[in-house]
Amino acid sequence: MLIKSLNKVDTDLFYRLYKLTLKRDCRSIIWLSKTGDGYLYFVIGMLLWAFEPEHGEIFLYTALMAYALELPIYVLLKKMFKRPRPCDFLINLKAHVTPSDKFSLPSGHTAAAWLMASIVAHYYPPFAVIAYSWATLIGMSRILLGVHYPSDVLAGTLLGITIASTSIYILG
Fold it and tell me: What ranges do the domains of the chain cover?
């Protein structure tokens, strides 16, 4: 009964947020979401490694280790839960983007964004608010685009923070 109630709340919140994008130009949301595809993380890591002598090298190593841990766990969770995406499951709903895979739990974009934000916040505290705000927007974009439920984003957030914290603990 509790699971059914949580699922209803999750679906209702999804619809409320997704409806904000109906009949609207979503290019800015799509662009924002694309900043979470992974290329930006690599560029940030390489630039810090090359040009920031105080923390750049350890930042890069921490991020590489974190992503090496996060990716297989993310894939395992997707295969374990096999939760259909809202755009594939809910009636009369079309996503604004084509999802990269079949399942929605957890949100990989959100996990990666929160992982990166957590590592940035640890090594560069003055940028914490910007990094966490950006990660929050990445997660929100995935809901607005119709490819994730709010609980997928929450699970991705928890995964990203947990893996980042573990990696920082091991290397930091």
Answer: 35-171
Q: Which residues pair with 84 in a beta bridge?
A: 103
Comparison of pLDDT for 74 and 90, the residue scoring more: 74
Using alpha carbons only, give the angle 96, 99, 102 rounded to the nearest 5 degrees: 135
Q: Which residue has the tokens 């699970």?
A: 155
Domain 35-171 class, CATH top level: mainly alpha
Scanning 22-171, the segments in alpha helix (DSSP H) are 27-34, 39-51, 56-81, 86-89, 108-123, 128-144, 150-171
- If one counts every other C-beta atom within 10 angstroms of the C-beta of residue 122, the result is 19
Q: What is the DSSP letter of 100?
A: S
Q: pLDDT tens for residues 131-140?
A: 999 999 999 9
For 41, half-sphere exposure in the C-beta direction (CA atoms, 13 angstrom radius) is 27
CB atoms near residue 151 (< 10 Å) = 20
Q: Any idea how long the chain is?
A: 172
